Amino acid sequence: MFCRYWIVLLVALGALVSACAPAPTATPVPPPPTNPPPTSAPAAMAMTTHIVATPNDLKWADVPSLPRGAKIAIIEGSLAETGFATVRLKFPADYKVPPHFHPVVERVTILSGALNMGLGDLLDASKSTALPAGSIMVIPPQTHHFVWTKEETIVQLNVVTPWGITYVNPADDPRKQ
């Protein structure tokens, strides 16, 4: 009982002291800095709408920088302009892309079929890895590599742009044939 009396008295005293204490002076908080957006923001960063696309929405076109038969569908961005791009590539069965490299990191997700990928300056199928649908590969810039298919294969490419392709053997470049 005696203990309860002191607890009640201390709580009441604390409330009284708090009520009589002067209110703290408010320190104004400056607003967060407003930085204007960069004037040359990459296309993906300046994006103001969302993109929803089903496979039937994609518009396929020939790819001049790849051997005949490959098709490309641009989902967002431009491979030639500064920014970011998401594209799909469709390779027919028994297709080969000779050894080549890119100036930027290449992120490739295999959506259907299987893509065989190898490293080096010669296309040697025995030195490649089969990547089934669902696989992903991330290739550092300037990495010499090649790809080939046994069946129709669709991949999604996500890259910072501008993107490009340089063939190890210039005679393999279809733009020069």
Low-confidence stretches: 5-21, 23-27, 29-44
Relative helix content: 10-25%
Distance between the termini: 101 Å
In N-to-C order, the SSE pattern is HEEEEEEEEEEE
Second CATH tier, the architecture of the domain at 55-176: Sandwich
The structural class is mainly beta
Q: Brief overview, please?
A:
Helix content is 11%, strand content 34%. By secondary structure, it is mainly beta. The strands form two sheets. The chain has a six-stranded antiparallel β-sheet with strand order 1-2-3-10-5-8, with no helix packed on it. Strands 7-6-9-4-11 form a five-stranded antiparallel β-sheet, with no helix packed on it.
Descriptive notes:
This protein has one helix spanning 2-20, and strands at residues 61-62, 71-76, 83-91, 96-101, 106-112, 114-119, 128-132, 136-139, 145-148, 153-161, 166-167. By secondary structure, it is mainly β. It starts with a helix and ends in a 10-residue tail after the last strand.
Quick tags:
177 residues; mainly beta; Jelly Rolls; 6-stranded antiparallel beta sheet; 1 helix; 11% helix
Write the layout of secondary structure elements.
Blueprint: H1 2-20, E1 61-62, E2 71-76, E3 83-91, E4 96-101, E5 106-112, E6 114-119, E7 128-132, E8 136-139, E9 145-148, E10 153-161, E11 166-167
